[in-house]
Amino acid sequence: MVFKSPVEGIEEKFEMIQILNEDGKIVNEDAMPDLSDDDLVELMRRMVYTRVLDQRSIALNRQGRLGFYAPTAGQEASQLGSQFALEQDDFILPGYRDVPQLIWQGLPLYQAFLFSRGHYHGNQMPEDVQALSPQIIIGAQITQAAGVALGMKNRGKKNVAITYTGDGGASQGDFYEGVNFAGAYQAPAIFIVQNNRFAISVPVEKQSAAKTIAQKSVAMGIPGFLVDGMDVLAVYKVVQEARERAVNGDGPTLIETLTYRYGPHTMAGDDPTRYRTEDMDSEWEKKDPIVRFRKFLEEKGLWSEEKENEVMETAKEEIKAAIKKADKQEKQSVTELISIMHEELPANLIEQMEEFKEKESK
Amino acid sequence: MAEMTMIQAITDALRTELKNDDNVLVFGEDVGQNGGVFRATEGLQDEFGEERVFDTPLAESGIIGMAVGLSTQDYRPVPEIQFFGFVFEAMDAVVGQAARMRYRSGGRWHAPITIRSPFGGGVHTPELHADSLEGFMTQAPGLRVVIPSGPYDAKGLLISSIRNNDPVIFLEHMKLYRSFREEVPEEEYTIDLDKANIVKEGTDMTLVAYGAMVHASLKAAEELEEEGISCEVIDLRTVSPIDIDTILESVKKTNRAIVVQEAQRQAGVAAGIVAEIQERAILHLESPVFRVTAPDTVYPFSQAEEVWLPNHQDVKEKVKESMNF
Question: Where is the Transketolase-like pyrimidine-binding domain (chain B) (predicted)?
Fold first, then answer.
């Protein structure tokens, strides 16, 4: 061969960024984010709380009391570290597993449960939460994020659009279109690909010849980073820098977080033992984001078992209260759903509204 | 009052709304400096700047997805799909996303997007430029689908579409772009998005059509008039929602109806209208409600399109079949 492909050795350019290793030791002091002790404790509180929420959600689902649920355990650092770098007016375009980010941005817990239960109130973001509801179509949110970001840029806002997808999502046409649009317009967007290694059952190795997803940024002409998605400090730091670049007018960033979902794809019958080994599970559990951050904080004297139990108890109580509140939500009616289709209802829906009023009164 | 072609009326409507509302953004492939492949956006970038009227990368799903995102920032996007056959690349963005924004978010967000796009046969395009795909769109809850039949309607309907706070698919028949001129007021005006227009009154037969088929129907009606058959011609203007009341009122007077569409026969707009008429006015009918449509093939390679497309002769024959039923 006469020509050497530039893709050879490209993975060296995308070495995984890590700040806190599996033993809870800082391995990259220079990159240490500027977070106060209170911030560090808050990050830990959120991760522990979210792990409890995941366990309770799975239990509720098994009791038939929740509905659609995509487990989050294992991905806390990736989800919450990135959300922690946001300002309140930043805009989140989540995938269906990214409910925790919405919750910590201000979506009340009972509404998150209503989303799972298939009630539209679960999708009604509060006025102070700039976010779309979790996207079901893989990758559709990525082109939308480019639009949100371009709008923010043109409005002169100092905010970003942040969107999440998975390793499978990075195979979609919309991924390339959305990231490329944001690059072309130098729009303030952050694209997070949470590479949890499986798109339902298909391993990431089968998604692409590319060794990393982060390197796809090269083709789009924007910065890209590969981050240890089990290291909350690294995720926070990289997203925070991407945010800074974006609001300073320096355009979008693609971030791949290497992570793992301990649970099934969703609670609707997926069986991970069909495509993952126990060895693989336990290998990733050793990298657990909460375990290593706990070690780090305990070493600093900022965390204790007592404190963790307290957080877990609070979480359980609040989850219980939120479920109670969700139980009290009035069942949605078809007439209500008809009424939210359009600003002005067309004649056919006015007629069908009457039909369903009658049907629902029976 | 100025005489304008339909393409000029469309440019005029875009200019009117770009002036009226700073939130209106016009974008798509080649719409910037080039003024669009049909010149629909001619001069608009120079007049309103690159932030308001701009080129996009060549990716239809990206264009509509971006429009959805922009609408969350209080913009009123008017994206162009260069030819409507390319909408297949953006089906999720249109039907799965834009159309559902208000519903999905329980009213927290909405998508005041007007997707403009040329379509329609008879101009010898390559494949996937001329197809009548409105039937796909009318099956998507949340969308309005508007198809003007001439310059005056195009301006008023486009202004109404842009001002509407829900997504509108605005389809522009290529054959009508420059085929005739019409008086178009220079000032702004709107046309209701849920009202059909009776373009010719008649007593014996109701012809329901939209887009270029309005003209085929009118020509048929004129020739039939000389043979003593009086046709009423209804221009739907909007194929979703359908103004069924205007159709029924006419059918109750004429007792006969034919729906004319350029699209293929299977499913689609005409089938829906036939069903509505028979459910709501069967006792007024003296003949089955017929359709004049294209056959159920892929849109033909251009050498065959003159025969494939329904024309005024087809309409005339079907009218006679109905009259003699």
Answer: 4-179
Nearest neighbour of B105 by CB, restricted to A124, A144, A343:
A124
Interface-testing mutation among A91, A150, A176, A190, with chain B (most B C-beta atoms within 10 A):
A150
CA distance B260 to B243: 15
Identify the residue among A90, A111, A125, A132 best suited for mutation to test binding to B, counting B beta carbons within 10 A and taking the highest: A132
For residues A138 and A200, is the Cβ–Cβ distance under 8 A?
A: no
The string of DSSP codes covering A37-49 is: HHHHHHHHHHHHH
Catalytically annotated residue among B110, B129, B215, B284: B129
A264: preceding bond cis by omega (within 30 degrees) = no
Closest CA to A22 of A295, A302, A300: A295
Mutual angle of helices A173-184 and B60-71, in 10-degree steps: 60
> What gap in Å lies between CA A148 and CA A142, rounded to an integer?
10
**How many angstroms away from the CA of B147 is the closest CA of chain A?**
17
Residues B315 and B212: their CA atoms lie apart, in Å, by 13
Q: Is A261 a catalytic residue?
A: yes
Give the ipTM of the model, two decimals please: 0.97
How is chain B split among helix, strand and coil, in percent rounded to 5? 40, 20, 40
List of chain B residues whose C-beta atoms are within 8 Å of the C-beta of residue A117: none
Q: How far is CA A69 from CA A49, A61, A156, A210, A264, in A?
A: 17, 7, 37, 31, 10
Q: How far is B258 from chain A (nearest CA, A)?
A: 21
Amino acid at A28: N
pLDDT in tens, chain A (362 residues): 789 888 988 988 999 999 999 999 999 999 999 999 999 999 999 999 999 999 999 999 999 999 999 999 999 999 999 999 999 999 999 999 999 999 999 999 999 999 999 999 999 999 999 999 999 999 999 999 999 999 999 999 999 999 999 999 999 999 999 999 999 999 999 999 999 999 999 999 999 999 999 999 999 999 999 999 999 999 999 999 999 999 999 999 999 999 999 999 999 999 999 999 999 999 999 999 999 999 999 999 999 999 999 999 999 999 999 999 999 999 999 999 999 999 999 999 999 999 999 999 99
Residue type, A327: D
CA distance A214 to A192: 9
B184 burial level (CB within 10 Å; 0-12, 13-18, 19+): buried
- End-to-end, the C-alpha distance of chain B in Å comes to 46
CB A107 within 8 A of CB A123: no
Give the pair of three-digit tokens for residue B6. 């339909």
Closest to A93 in 3D by CA, of B235, B73, B292: B73
DSSP per-residue string spanning B128-167:
TSS---HHHHHTSTT-EEE---SHHHHHHHHHHHHHSSS-
Select which of A243, A261, A276, A292 is catalytic: A261
| φ, ψ (nearest 5 deg) of residue A153 | -65, -45
Report the C-alpha gap between A52 and A58 in whole angstroms: 10
Contact between chains at B62 and A124 (C-beta distance less than 8 A): no
Tell me phi and psi for residue A183, to 5 degrees.
-65, -45
Q: Which residues lie below 8 Å from residue B249, measured CB to CB, with a gap of 6+?
A: none
What residues in A contact B96, CB-CB < 8 Å? 137, 140
From residue A99, alpha-carbon distances to A120, B154, B288 in Å are: 15, 44, 55
Q: What is the bridge-based pairing of β-strands A189-195 and A198-199?
A: unpaired
Phi first, then psi: give them for residue A349, nearest 5 degrees: -75, -30
Neighbours of B201 (CB within 10 A): 11
Contact in structure between B163 and B153 (CB atoms under 8 Å): no
Is A138 within 8 Å of A114 (Cβ atoms)? Answer: no
Closest partner residue to A180 (CB to CB) among B57, B105, B142 is: B57
